[in-house]
Amino acid sequence: MQMIRVRTRMALSACAMLYRSSISGPVRLMTTDTQSVAAKLSSSGLLRSQALIGGKWVDAYDGKTIKVHNPATGEVITDVPCMGGRETNDAISSAYDAFSSWSKLTAAERSKYLRKWYDLIMAHKEELGQLMTLEQGKPLKEAIGEVSYGAGFIEFSAEEGKRIYGDIIPSPLADRRLFVLKQPVGVVGAITPWNFPLAMITRKVGPALACGCTVVIKPSELTPLTALAAAELSIQAGIPPGVVNVVMGNAPDIGDALLASPQVRKITFTGSTKVGKKLMEGAATTVKKVSLELGGNAPCIIFDDADLEVALKGALATKFRNTGQTCVCANRILVQEGIYDKFANAFAKAVQNMKVGDGFTEGVEQGPLINEAAVQKVESFVEEATSKGAKVLIGGKRHSLGMTFYEPTVVTGVNSEMLLAKEEVFGPVAPLLKFKTDEEAIQMANDTNAGLAAYIFSTNIKRAWRVTEALEYGIVGVNEGLVSTEVAPFGGVKQSGLGREGSKYGMDEYLEMKYVCLGSMS
User: Fold this and answer.
1) Is the pLDDT of residue 106 over 70?
2) Eight-state DSSP code of residue 366
3) Measured between alpha carbons, how far apart are the two ends of the chain, in Å?
4) By three-state DSSP, how is residue 229 classified?
5) HEC readout, 50-91
6) Which of 16, 216, 429, 453 is such that its CA lies 20 to 30 A from the CA of 511?
7) DSSP secondary structure string, 332-358?
8) Which residues act catalytically here (predicted)?
9) pLDDT by residue (tens digit) across 220-267?
10) What's the DSSP call for residue 322?
11) Residue 497 reports pLDDT greater than 60
């Protein structure tokens, strides 16, 4: 069986490619500050640099490694294994073997393990936040916030797993009884991105384990350390060997192994729409269950009756969270023409006051972009817009701090034909588009293949409700820019994905339904 490749193979080895693409310029040794943070994390036992297979910490079988960098400084934090298909197959076998016993535990027993894991994550939230800032770059306060947010999925799953109910169906025949059972789907392959190194894992693994599934996690090679620290805490929580496995390295080989194995019954993925489509195609060969949380192109609609202070606060939060590197960031800010100039000036002033720097620095609100490729993408989008008549109101260039820092940017005069409006910029750039009527705003907002999140700011409840129903998105925030929570279903429509994560609805993604007909009851 020929598998769909996640990306085209190149002449260089995959591990060498990963190493070269993750850095710009010469390798930097750790400064005293970085060394002290890394030493503290190492002494706590949370700075792991091996993969987890069957409850054991292991290296790549061929000894190959990749370097993990601090994007704020370019310094090497540590090396981690660059694994491939062999290690992944062993992780799958380990998860498959563990499934038979883990799935047979009662929901209450699994809940106790998950609750302990949650308690340990919260007890170590400062260290986990530091580790996240070290490898991903987001401000420490924001990183610690992600730890609490991510832990919430473990806590919720521990509770909700005890409320997975079946059904009794009234039979049309007197001598039969009809039942519906819900059972765990099996081994789950969880592929997660770099922008939320903990939360994207916990909101998949939490419900999977609560339902009785076992998992093989493939975190991003850019940010594997938070995933490994979370796995270490799962061991400390007593979760049995093989229930949680973590492999990293050669993404195509790992992905192919997960897709090819009949023992893997579900793939859950957060990442680009391009890769999601390939995974969906590859999963068809063994007819796996798939849930995908893919790219977005979120509109943030500011109506002329909006409370300007609320709209400014909400737009800033949804645009610049994680330096604009989230799938639900406001990618397009649509402002009604009557308040366009007023909003643009106030917004630019607020953006100008944002402090940019290393995430460990007090008061920093904007960290670096993840790597050089991300900066180049942002630069190309801004250059394309200005070449077509858009105006940079503030920012618009690399930050004087160097490395992968980019100035928080506001661009006016953007139209729907520019890349800033058509594709995810995934950076700290806010394009402002002008509209006249509600109908035009709806048309502009829906004019995309994406359909993950949208935002509305208006004090008119009738208008807000009417527009909400007309928007083709899985999530809509009304007068609120931060909408994610473990108790609500997260997911999109159109090409933004399939399925939901979080809430009671997210539990169903890890369950199969079995109909039972019991005869001879008379």
Assistant:
1) yes
2) B
3) 50
4) helix
5) CEEECCEEECCCCCCEEEEECCCCCEEEEEEECECHHHHHHH
6) 453
7) EEEEEGGGHHHHHHHHHHHHHT--BS-
8) 293, 327
9) 999 999 999 999 999 999 999 999 999 999 999 999 999 999 999 999
10) G
11) yes
CB 233 within 8 A of CB 474: no
Q: Pick the catalytic residue from 142, 293, 424, 501.
A: 293
Structure tokens at 68: 């993990």
Q: Confirm whether 379 is a catalytic residue.
A: no
**CA-CA distance, 369 to 375, in Å (whole number)?**
7
429-435 and 409-412 strand pairing: parallel
User: Cα 241 to chain center, whole Å?
Assistant: 26
In degrees, rounded to 5, the angle at the alpha carbon of residue 338 between the alpha carbons of residues 334 and 344 is: 55
Q: Identify whether the C-beta of residue 412 lies closer than 8 Å to the C-beta of residue 329.
A: no
Contacts of 145 (CB under 8 A, 6+ apart): none
Whole-angstrom Cα distance, residue 83 to residue 214? 20
* pLDDT tens-digit readout, 445-483: 999 999 999 999 999 999 999 999 999 999 999 999 999
**Residue 417 bears catalytic tag:** no
CA–CA distance from 137 to each of 20, 42, 160, 377, 454 (Å)?
Answer: 19, 19, 33, 18, 26
- In the structure, what pLDDT confidence band is assigned to residue 40 with cuts at 50, 70 and 90? confident
Tokens 């790549």 found at: 60
DSSP letter string over 428-476? SEEEEEEE-SHHHHHHHHH-SS--SEEEEE-S-HHHHHHHHHHS--SEE
The active-site residue, picked from 327, 365, 486, 509, is 327
The pLDDT tens digits of the residues spanning 379-402 come to 999 999 999 999 999 999 999 999
Decide: 508 and 184 in contact? Cβ < 8 Å. no
Q: Per residue in 176-230, pLDDT tens?
A: 999 999 999 999 999 999 999 999 999 999 999 999 999 999 999 999 999 999 9
Which residues make beta-bridge pairs with 366?
A: 356
User: What pLDDT does 275 receive?
Assistant: 96
